């Protein structure tokens, strides 16, 4: 496993991280989750990402139980705050009250005194940047959070936040967590250039496009039983990715991966990691074999000729970009 700095910070994270969205605490049993987490740690994955809202805290709890057996200083644990955790008027968003209360709740579920990376899960237009960033800075000062980050913030929002932190003398954001894959390249236009200039690294989610870039879904066959696409509790965002023209484009990637002697998932992860501003690619896993295959993508390099072949193969399928 190779490691990269989280933006301009001194923190080093594994090129491949293990996430828990739609998996741990829900669709994947606790024993299987622990097995995946254990194997990830054995393979050198040190970056484990979750969020309080994933199964309303259950994912954090499963992760905390599994990671308790390892030295805390060998782990980079990340979680998030924003989405509602209850039905009350203060149970969501980025108010100081919600941030502080949910940070403490996450720490209890994760069985730790601090989180390495605490991320604002979305932008909250109803709360001033001054309020939410001041709360984050206080958590860092208290030692309950080591680094702050955001998720799915647009470039102007990131820029405004960092400018305010500089004016106030607060600890600066270290990362952004956006969706990024061969099929979804929206961050390349503005978010990456802005982040590079301001010192944020990307820890990207869905680099395998919810499994579509693994090649498990074929144009002329129904989704295999037991996959995310057949599970109504997990497939709510998959419909655009399962269109025939997308699956046909993914099929055209097979010979490229074969020529390199790697799998389709490894090709997709290597493509994401070709971008220097990407600090880590976060993957989900329901089986140990998936963890092993994904971890092997670390260190794989793609030359200009391969990148050109990939763009040719996917022409017409990269539809979720500002230029698409």
List the helices and strands and how they pair.
Blueprint: E1 3-5, E2 12-14, E3 16-18, H1 30-42, E4 47-49, H2 58-67, E5 76-81, H3 96-110, E6 115-120, H4 129-141, E7 145-151, H5 155-168, E8 173-177, H6 191-198, E9 201-205, H7 244-251, H8 254-260, H9 264-273, E10 278-283, H10 288-295, H11 304-313
Parallel strand pairs: 3-10, 4-5, 5-6, 6-7, 7-8, 8-9, 9-10
Antiparallel strand pairs: 1-2
Helix pairs in contact: 1-2, 1-10, 2-3, 5-6
What keyword list fits this structure?
alpha/beta; two-stranded antiparallel ribbon; 324 residues; 11 helices; TIM Barrel; eight-stranded parallel sheet
The separation of the N and C termini measures 34 Å
Largest sheet: 8 strands, parallel
- Would you count the extended β strands for me? 10
Question: Taking all residues together, what is the mean pLDDT?
Answer: 92
In sequence order, what are the helices and strands, one letter per element?
A: EEEHEHEHEHEHEHEHHHEHH
Task: Give the number of helices.
Answer: 11
Number of domains: 1
Percent of residues in β-strands: 5-15%
Radius of gyration: 19 Å
What is the name of the CATH topology? TIM Barrel
Can you name the CATH architecture?
Alpha-Beta Barrel
Q: Which ranges are low-confidence, i.e. pLDDT below 50, for 5 or more consecutive residues? A: none
Give the fraction of residues assigned to helices. Answer: 25-40%
Q: Please state the overall shape, judged from the principal axes of the Cα atoms.
A: globular
- In spatial order, strands of the major sheet run 3-10-9-8-7-6-5-4
CATH superfamily: NADP-dependent oxidoreductase domain
Q: Tell me the structural class.
A: alpha/beta
What is the CATH domain class?
A: Alpha Beta
